[in-house]
Amino acid sequence: MRRLLMIDLDRAWDLHPQVALRDEPFGALVYHFGTRKLSFLKDRRLLAVVRGLAGAPTARQACASCAVPPAELPRFGAALGALARSAMLVERAPAAGAGDGAP
User: Phi, psi (5° rounding) for residue 50?
Assistant: First the structure.
């Protein structure tokens, strides 16, 4: 049995700057121009989450904004983890003042 590793959903993530998404009838193509890797997103909700990562403070909040139920977070976390392991996603530094108690 293959073990699926999740990303930390409580961290900020984004598409790698060299990654492009292209909508397709089945979902989307994800292409990394640096590594020349190609991935397929066949779940439109996962595509929405990936697109929402840039505007969300955490991956968990990107999932919540796309109506991903808590019971499905492990599956989405594993899918996002696979994208991160293939360098399609990168961890984003938190915004200045986020989480440090600053007003």
Answer: -60, -45
CA torsion angle 80 84 89 94 (round to 10): 90
E strands, the chain, are 13-15, 19-24, 27-32, 38-41, 89-91
The residues, ordered by sequence, that sit 6+ positions from 7 with a Cβ below 8 Å of its Cβ are 13, 59, 77, 80, 81, 84, 89
Q: Which two tokens stand for residue 86?
A: 């293939």
What count of other Cβ atoms lies within 10 Å of the Cβ of residue 96?
A: 7
pLDDT in tens, 28-55: 999 999 999 999 999 999 999 999 999 9
| DSSP count for the chain of H helices, then E strands | 3, 5
Query: Which tokens belong to 54?
Result: 């840039």
Pairing of strands 19-24, 27-32: antiparallel
Residues in the chain: 103
